[in-house]
Amino acid sequence: MVRLVEDMQSGDHPAAPVLVLANDADAGGLKKAAAMGVATEVVDHRPFKGDRVAFEAALQEKLQAYQPDILCLAGFMRVLTEGFVAPWEGRMLNIHPSLLPKYKGLHTHARALEAGDAEHGCSVHEVTAALDDGPLLGQARVAIEPGDTPDTLAARVLVQEHRLYPAVLRRFAAGDRDFLAL
């Protein structure tokens, strides 16, 4: 979760991290954030036993304490309800490991290989109540190579995710909603 920076110096990023919120206490981003002095919180979804509304209320409670301007989802593998998404409309981003609109949901690398696709990649999109369906803000492509497995393909896509997401976030935080292709 980031807050927009109003007193940017030349070359600075227009957003600053204020919180890394995870539903898994072992999420790698928590350790990285803590090492950088960014606040961290965990709301484990398991005690809510499928009660999405209660889980999302707990998430909202944590978010309210930090007042982020933009939510940036990455590796958050929970489907969010319209009730959670609506207050963040136009301010929540997600990175997805496929060239949306292809392969919404899970197992995207295996699905691209099974389909015989020549290329695969990742997409950053605005989050809406529909799964992996919001306006596209950017994509990065990788060639599918002979002998690729879901794991080898995922590793190459991840490199592009780490390039694409910060670039799209920089533009988005500055007010630029144009599509970015890497």
From TrEMBL:
NCBIfam families: PurN (TIGR00639). GO terms for cellular component: cytosol. It comes from the Bacteria. The lineage of its organism: Bacteria, Pseudomonadati, Pseudomonadota, Alphaproteobacteria, Rhodobacterales. It comes from Shimia abyssi. One of its GO terms (molecular function) is phosphoribosylglycinamide formyltransferase activity. The keyword Kinase does not apply. This is Phosphoribosylglycinamide formyltransferase. It catalyses: N(1)-(5-phospho-beta-D-ribosyl)glycinamide + (6R)-10-formyltetrahydrofolate = N(2)-formyl-N(1)-(5-phospho-beta-D-ribosyl)glycinamide + (6S)-5,6,7,8-tetrahydrofolate + H(+). Belongs to the GART family. SUPFAM superfamilies: Formyltransferase. Keywords: Purine biosynthesis, Transferase.
